[in-house]
Amino acid sequence: MAIFYQPEIPAGVHSLDQEESRHCVKVLRHTTGDTIKVLDGKGSIYEARITTASPKACAFEIINTITQDKPAHYIHIAIAPTKNLDRMEWFIEKAVEIGIQEISFLLCKNSERRVLKTDRLERKAISALKQSQGAYMPRINELLPYPDFITKVQEKRKYIAYVDFSNPAKLYHIAPPGDTYCILIGPEGDFTEDELELAIQNDFQKVSLGNSRLRTETAGLAACHGLNVINDR
């Protein structure tokens, strides 16, 4: 069954947006009476029947609703975007498939990319949500200077992934299940010592993601996967 995305269903909107409508009617050739699946990204998955097969606004009626509870944990990855945007798209796609609640982008001293538009990244996240049939769309935040971000973190468990092979604290050993987490992932040149110290001053704990030196997007995904594994035990 074809899967589509409409976040405004809880507000009473029972039609797809123009892009989704075109894909539904023109590409997949759905017509009036066909059954489709629609996600709202807010916890509900709907079985719906098309009532108006318009490529501009494909209308539907809801037949059945399945609602999923929010997970007991909350994973927030704050990452310095790579110069090659494809690598960030890959990270978002895989993180959404695995399970993530929030993604933020950090402007660090060693950042290679200093301007970032999130529209394309949000579309990649929607595509991954539909692919994985996830119930919750993660929050994706705009690029923010590192010092500004550090002081606004609300999660209880705060970690900074830092390349320091003398650091014995592995994320997977110290993060407890069923909690809220924010983990900082630096640029290819890593965080500066000043950025590390600022994080520590704001109650972040320095952690390791393993013995290998990881690329930025790989580190982000390793952290995301590790925290999900901890919470799947």
What's the short story on this structure?
By secondary structure, the chain is of the alpha/beta class. Helices cover 31% and strands 25% of the residues.
Structural overview:
α2 packs parallel to α3. 31% of the residues lie in helices and 25% in strands. By secondary structure, the protein is an alpha/beta fold. The chain has 2 domains: 65 residues, Ribosomal Protein L25, Chain P, CATH 2.40.240.20; 158 residues, SPOUT methyltransferase, trefoil knot domain (Alpha/beta knot), CATH 3.40.1280. The relative contact order is 0.15. The strands form 2 sheets. The protein has a 6-stranded parallel beta sheet with strand order 7-6-5-9-8-10, sandwiched between helices. A 4-stranded mixed beta sheet has the order 1-2-3-4. Specifically methylates the N3 position of the uracil ring of uridine 1498 (m3U1498) in 16S rRNA. Acts on the fully assembled 30S ribosomal subunit. Its EC number is 2.1.1.193.
CATH level 1 name of the largest domain: Alpha Beta
Order of helices and strands: EHEEEEHEHEHEHEHEH
* Gyration radius, rounded: 20 Å
* CATH T-level topology of the largest domain: Alpha/beta knot
Q: Summarize the biggest pleated sheet.
A: 6 strands, parallel
Structural class: alpha/beta
Average per-residue pLDDT, rounded, comes to: 95
Number of helices: 7
* Overall number of domains: 2
CATH architecture of the largest domain: 3-Layer(aba) Sandwich
Shape: elongated
Segments where pLDDT lies below 50 for 5+ residues?
none
The percent of residues in helical segments reads 25-40%
- The CATH superfamily of the largest domain bears the name SPOUT methyltransferase, trefoil knot domain
Number of extended strands: 10
Strand composition percent: 25-35%
Determine the N-to-C terminus distance.
Answer: 31 Å
In spatial order, strands of the major sheet run 7-6-5-9-8-10
